[in-house]
Amino acid sequence: TYHLSSPASISLTLWGSDPLRATSSSLSSSQSGLSSVALLVKRGRCKKVVVVAGAGISTASGIPDFRTPGTGLYANLEKYNVPYPEAIFNIDYFSNDPQPFFSLAKFLYPGGHRPNYIHYFIRMLHHKGLLLRVYTQNIDGLEKLCGIPDEKLVEAHGSFATASCHLCHTPYPSEECAIMSDNVPTCSFCAATVKPDVVFFGEDLPQKYFLHTKDFPKADLLIIMGTSLKIEPFASLVNTVGSSVPRLLLNRHAVGPFERVPLRRRDHMELGDLAETIRRFAEFLGWNGEIEEMMKDREALVGELCL
Ligand code: CNA
Fold it and tell me: What's the pTM value of the predicted model, to 2 decimals?
């Protein structure tokens, strides 16, 4: 089985003190990666696109990520009273004291935030028949809310849509988890705490995650967006596409294999604000108007579903 593992152990074992590793400041965006990848898409060379996404796709919706200094959740956990940032998503810590997670969950709970242009860009990939699958680490449900169908979506770190006892795994409807109330819900069989099926450090990933064994070898373009690629096993997925497959990183800074100099052949990256980068990408592709239209069409439904 696969467990989420602590980011600290990953950076020690995986990246260590690699002399080839560059600081993000010593790297600039590759030679117009965005336009060359857009050209490939326009020429019909990429029809099985896999998207790998992280918290950076939702910051434009007002949800902080984990690791951005200053604004990230890890820099703002004082009020939750945890000994170290990852404790809030650690299953053993939760077992002893679920309160910090439930306090934070109120904020992350779906309903308070709307999908942004980036989510709709991914849906447009599907609309154009180009999306093989999107693998997201996010638990905010915004991919679903923007209309990406279930069969195209892998919520690799789970979601708030269902809940279960963290000890005996008895399933509960998500409403019973009562995230928005101040009571910590308990299992009627074993009295342990019921938690939303968000994957914590030390827990198994959902079965659907294993679709990656079929998808990544088939992909003809990998787009990685808004993730620090620090959490395993998710982070290593990006190394499982064929070596001739173009990989495009869209992020504020270089991460994972994109920190190496020189970049692998067919690796591209575009560094900067993701919302702005995706708009430029959509413009290169000639999709901007259609995405705006799609957002407008979905607005009423999103409005109804949001608080
Ligand atoms: P992370 O480690 O916080 O990394 C986010 C990455 O996105 C960083 O490299 C940032 O520089 C980058 N980034 C953030 N905003 C922007 C922006 N506007 N433009 C460009 N780049 C940007 O988060 P990861 O997703 O890598 O870590 C995985 C964790 C985070 C998962 O287990 C999630 O459950 C968890 N998380 C999810 C949410 C959510 O659901 N929205 C929010 C916070 C954390």
Answer: 0.90
